[in-house]
Every structure is written in C-alpha cells, then in structure tokens.
Design brief:
0% strand; mainly alpha; rod-shaped
C-alpha cells in the first residue's frame, strides 16, 4: 500500500487468508488496476490534445513570420512561442518525460507552398526568407 500511496508501480497482492481479507485484497487489487488505467487514459488524452495543438500553432507561427508589421509580428511570435511552451509542458506532464520527437526540416516545403500560393508569393521577399525559421516551428 505504501508504494501505491507514493504513486509507484504496485504489484498484485495475493488474495489469501480469511474471506474478509480476500475480499479486501481483491478490492485493493481492482482499485490499483482502475487507478492505473485512469492514469494511463489521462496521459493519452493530454498527449493527444497537446499534439493536436502543435500543428495549428506551427501554422500560426508561419503566418506570423510573414507579417509586414515588425512590432505586430514580434508580438504574435512571442504569443505563439508561449503557447507552444505550454503545449510542451503538457507533453512532459503527460509522458513524465520531454517530447523526444525529431524535428523535421521544412524550409523547402514552406518555400514551395508560399510560392504556389499567389497571395503569399508576393510577400516572400529575400528579407522575409531570412526571417522565416520553420525549424523553430
């Protein structure tokens, strides 16, 4: 019971002895299983929500990097970075470890998408290309 109380993995307690003790032990083992399952479900849900938020945040960051107004761009990028940090904290909390996923290079893909989109193509100047940092997404 002490291991369970400290949140450590708890082995199944053998159900033996008088019937009252067996019932108590059975109830304890069932409670440990249910709490463990609930904890696992919570971690999966938190991780799923956090991962689902990463894509829209990446799109917001890309759009922010393309803004013409420097002051507005810096403010939006700062806000998106703050939200991304919160999402990363959720992932650490959900998995009890940092997110170990590998970053993917997206420079060429972003440039290709920007050039194929007429309303973006005119905004992608050489100076803006230097500001675009997709690896930070």
């Amino acid at each position: 019971m002490q291991r369970f109380g400290r949140g450590q993995p708890t082995p199944v307690v053998p159900e033996r002895g008088p019937s009252e003790l067996r019932q108590l032990t059975h109830g304890f083992n069932q409670m440990v299983r249910e709490v463990s399952q609930t904890e696992s479900d919570r971690a999966v849900m938190l991780a799923g929500v956090a991962h689902d938020l990463k894509t829209p945040l990446a799109r917001l960051r890309l759009r922010a990097e393309m803004m013409d107004d420097n002051k507005m761009r810096e403010g939006v990028v700062r806000d998106v970075d703050s939200m991304a940090h919160i999402v990363d904290q959720f992932l650490v909390f959900a998995h009890d470890r940092p997110d170990g996923s590998e970053p993917a290079p997206v420079d060429e893909q972003c440039e290709r998408v920007a050039r194929s989109e007429p309303r973006l193509a005119s905004k992608v100047s050489k100076s803006q290309k230097k500001r675009l940092r997709p690896e930070a997404l």
